[in-house]
């Protein structure tokens, strides 16, 4: 029987746009949960939290720790967990690690990047009643060079075929990363499952971005990211004020001490 949250996401196809963002902690997840449809614990934490140049070094243990934290802040939205590079290289390994992620985090679904070969892995997980989100286009775990994909008829046709094979394998949705508007629209209009775009035009069924990017925290601002605020500036202002008050002996005051202290 299909998960009620998954069913709700699938039914939004062609009806209303899906809103998706990333989270790596309970505090952020709690805020996002009030407003978004899907919260993704992305392997982007490798860049955002750990300062790596790519997503390759993030471990399954890292994913488990952060996903468990995020789960505590989730009530209504769909919680999807990114499977890190190397954790699903074959069917046996994928089943073992995905089962561990679901058991330890209580997430609703997992996401797997396509390498144009792992359709059977998706199929085997779906047969075990594990909801899978696909991911095509620019797939950071498998591609070193960043470029817009699907800019020619041949590329668009190949991407459509890849997306259809992922749908056929049983995925309930698919991320389209950095696809040309034409390819994104073609795939979205062809598939029965929702497409979620990142840098892939307004024609997708939904959009996802890295939360730290839209908040002005990450320092990573490609053209497809819109910075909705600048938390870097706000945090720095608060830190400067704190520093000044400590040096001028304005903090802490008596009101900042615990009540009832005898010493």
Can you describe this structure in just a few lines?
The chain is built from 10 helices and 8 strands.
- Strand fraction band? 5-15%
CATH homologous superfamily descriptor? Phosphoenolpyruvate-binding domains
As laid out across the biggest beta sheet, the strand order is 1-2-3-4-5-6-7-8
Give the CA-based shape. Answer: globular
Class derived from helix and strand content: alpha/beta
The oligomeric status of these chains comes to single chain
State the total count of DSSP E strands. 8
Number of helices: 10
CATH fold label: TIM Barrel
Give the low-confidence spans. Answer: none
Order of helices and strands: HEHEHHEHEHEHEHEEHH
CATH class placement: Alpha Beta
Biggest sheet overview: 8 strands, parallel, barrel
Indicate the CATH architecture. Answer: Alpha-Beta Barrel
Helix content: 25-40%
Q: Indicate the mean pLDDT.
A: 95
* Integer-rounded radius of gyration: 21 Å
Number of domains: 1
The end-to-end span amounts to 62 Å
């Amino acid at each position: 029987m299909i998960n009620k949250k998954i069913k709700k996401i699938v039914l939004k196809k062609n009806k209303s746009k899906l809103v998706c963002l990333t989270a790596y902690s309970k505090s952020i997840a709690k805020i996002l949960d009030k407003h978004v449809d899907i919260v993704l614990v992305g392997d982007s934490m490798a860049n955002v939290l750990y300062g790596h140049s790519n997503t390759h070094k993030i471990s399954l243990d890292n994913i488990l720790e952060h996903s468990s934290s995020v789960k505590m802040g989730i009530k209504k939205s769909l919680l999807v967990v990114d499977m890190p590079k190397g954790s699903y290289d074959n069917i046996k390994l994928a089943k073992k690690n995905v089962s561990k992620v679901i058991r330890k985090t209580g997430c609703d679904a997992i996401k797997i990047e396509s390498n144009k070969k792992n359709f059977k892995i998706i199929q085997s997980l779906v047969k075990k009643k594990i909801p899978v989100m696909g991911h095509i286009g620019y797939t950071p775990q498998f591609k070193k060079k960043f470029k817009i994909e699907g800019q020619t008829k041949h590329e668009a046709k190949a991407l459509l075929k890849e997306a259809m094979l992922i749908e056929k394998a049983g995925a309930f949705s698919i991320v389209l990363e950095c696809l040309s508007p034409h390819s994104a629209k073609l795939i979205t209009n062809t598939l029965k499952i929702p497409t979620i775009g990142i840098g892939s035009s307004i024609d997708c069924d939904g959009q996802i971005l890295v939360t730290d990017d839209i908040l002005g925290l990450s320092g990573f601002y490609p053209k497809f990211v819109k910075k909705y605020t600048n938390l870097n500036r706000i945090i720095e202002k608060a830190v400067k004020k704190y520093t000044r008050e400590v040096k001028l002996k304005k903090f802490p005051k008596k009101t900042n001490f615990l009540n009832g202290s005898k010493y």
